[in-house]
Amino acid sequence: MPHEIDPERVVVTESVAGSEYPVHLTYVELLDGVYAPIGLRMPEGSGPHPTVLLGRGNGGGGMAWVREATRNMGYIQECLLEAGYACAWLRYRAEVELGYNNGGRLVEDIRQGRQLLNRAPLEYEDEISIIEFVKTLPEVDGDRVGLMGVSHAGEMILKITSEYGGARACVACEPASHEFLDLSPDDTAFVNEETQLRNIEGMMMEEVEKVRARINHELALERMKSIQTPILIMGRDEDHLQGIFRATYDLMVEAGRDVQWVSYDHPMHGYIFPERGGDGEYAVDETQAEAIGACIAYLDKYMKN
What we know:
The chain is α/β, with parallel strands linked by helices. The protein has helices spanning 62-72, 75-82, 99-103, 123-134, 152-163, 208-212, 217-225, 242-254, 286-303, and strands spanning 11-14, 23-29, 35-41, 49-56, 86-90, 108-111, 114-117, 140-150, 170-173, 190-191, 198-199, 231-236, 259-264.
């Protein structure tokens, strides 16, 4: 029996409530042959289009997460689409506790004619695979692919760009870059007795001086110096990790990287990704509108010139 969908290139198109731009749901083969879901949306015109990949927080959730994000965190996508960008929510595997610091660089070899890795891929390496995939699409301008990430996905941008030069420009909003900076938490973090994994949800790192005193400055600076991609780092004035956000920017300046800083006073973590309210509508305040406008203006500077 013939297949209606190619099993090796599954694409399902859905409409998005309140939008003229549908979403194309597909699966991307990663480095180790497993698949990650993305939901790609295209602006008007035939392309190829500059494209922005969107990430938020830790991984997991699969295609259900992508569909939910498209339905209920789609405001940022509508703004990007109207500005002429293709865009996609993407998903990746879950964060591994200190996997980046302890695992070292991923090495690929061959054993008995098949792939051999020195460790399992990490979530930021999944995003690199996704970037490489979207560059193969005829609708996408492969020389103009950018990234936007909030929280852990913001830190992932730093990890990606320190090893990979295939992104044109990036926006890292509230990047929780404690691992990238090799930060040693104080007693506001603790170890979960049941799992023996760290709980850093309540870690208080508001002051830059406190952060700078607890990081591996030499290692952090070495990692920063390998970044060649322009990055806009966005803080949040009253966030308990604001010191980490600002220290990340300061170290990039110290390393001589192409970086900009802006911070907004807003109660919502991830304020550049507004969510639908209970009435099904997006309630976007002036601060969010200004911040989103700044993001798009920054991307325009590098991706439309």
